[in-house]
TrEMBL record:
Keywords associated with the record: Hydrolase
Family matches, as Pfam families: FGase
Entry-linked InterPro entries: N-FG_amidohydro
Protein name: N-formylglutamate amidohydrolase
MF term (GO), any: hydrolase activity
UniProt keyword annotation of Hydrolase present: yes
Record's keyword annotation contains Hydrolase: yes
Length: 232
């Protein structure tokens, strides 16, 4: 039997009080797509509610530390925090990074111990145009092609969306490669294919920022189609 867990690594652009001095004069940067993923937390909350799934979410800016990067990855810290003393960076890891990752792993281990296969949806959003290149996609479903369970869920999810919302442009492993560094890759190394299915959901921020009925309708269709996919 499948169990869901929903996470949101880039849900906000909050900077905890002890580190605000590092970000003086950086409000515009924090409010940009580099500071957080607009819409990702709203999507994650809706998924968790409708799937009756636990939600692990962070509203701390990815510019403080990127929870979707491995320790040692060059983008774990932003240019702002890379300039901070090593002791400060270690403190950030201990206070914000490790507890988040440990909580996600604990929930997965509990579900696996109860005999479930865990379907993990990591909620993200992406900027519609980057470096002058328009990303002509509404939704990206990211997974590791070598893990059959992930490939199967994403293929069926895409088919379900094509049937229920044919106007949506949905692509697999776009705008990023699903097997790249990230929380799902970390968890794949911890759990067998039969126990863990890790999928990153990427939604175009052009839809998110437009708000209104189109954004509400997209959330509903994504959730309904995922439910149909996993029930079949």
């Amino acid at each position: 039997m499948d169990a869901f867990i929903v996470t949101c690594e880039h849900g906000g652009n909050r900077v905890p009080a002890p580190y605000r001095r590092l970000f003086r004069g950086q409000r515009a940067l924090l409010d940009s797509h580099r500071g957080y993923d607009p819409g990702s937390l709203v999507m994650a909350k809706a998924l968790a509610r409708d799937l009756a799934a636990p939600l692990v979410a962070s509203t701390v800016s990815r510019l403080l530390i990127d929870l979707n990067r491995s320790i040692g990855h060059p983008q774990l810290f932003s240019a702002v925090t890379r300039a901070a003393p090593a002791q400060t960076r270690a403190q950030i890891v201990d206070q914000h990074y490790r507890p988040y990752r440990m909580q996600v792993e604990r929930l997965i281990r509990q579900a696996v111990a109860q005999g479930h296969r865990v379907i993990h949806i990591s909620s993200h959003s992406f900027i519609g145009e980057l470096d002058g290149k328009v990303r002509s996609t509404d939704v990206g479903l990211l997974y590791h092609p070598g893990r059959r369970g992930e490939a199967d869920v994403c293929a069926r999810w895409k088919e379900s969306l094509a049937a229920s919302a044919p106007e949506l442009r949905v692509r697999r492993n776009y705008p990023y490669a699903g097997k790249g560094d990230g929380l799902t890759s970390h968890l794949r190394a911890r759990f067998a294919q039969s126990h863990y299915v890790g999928i990153e959901l990427e939604v175009n921020q052009d839809i998110v920022l437009a708000a209104g009925r189109s954004w509400t309708a997209l959330r509903r269709r994504l959730i309904d189609s995922l439910g149909t996919t996993c029930a079949s």
